[in-house]
Amino acid sequence: MAERTESSIEVAAEAAAVLDVIADFPAYPEWAEQVREATVLGEDGDGWADEVEFVLDTGVIKDRYVLSYDWDVDEVGAGVVSWRLVRSEMLKALDGSYTITPKGDGTAVTYRLAVDVKLPMLGLIKRKAEKMIIDTALKELKRRVEG
Questions:
Q1: Beta strands in the chain, from DSSP E residues, in sequence order
Q2: Domain 5-146 belongs in CATH node 3.40.350.10
């Protein structure tokens, strides 16, 4: 698997509020600019989404993909939400995680992501794309949670 790119942001809200936004997949098109659709395909026994299908449109890149989720979080919303690619038209891998950590009056969120595309791409360009995806996602998440 390719190297992961990561970045962090602090959100002025409790961990549970951050987790609620991350777990509300049908609302992603309202705040995640490039997500056109997000459909929960299955849930585990605790009501967490197991598989989610996304329709992505960045203008240049359009894709439909399915991610499988793992929820290792506690009752206050702290922990790790991770995912891995199940299937995609353009991607070979899209594996990542949010680490949610209470910090003072807010929450630190670290996003890690590893992307591999079916088309050949230089490592430097891929890392730059990952960084752009992560930075945009964290800013949009912060804006949605702090709303």
A1: 5-11, 35-43, 49-57, 62-73, 79-88, 91-103, 106-117
A2: no
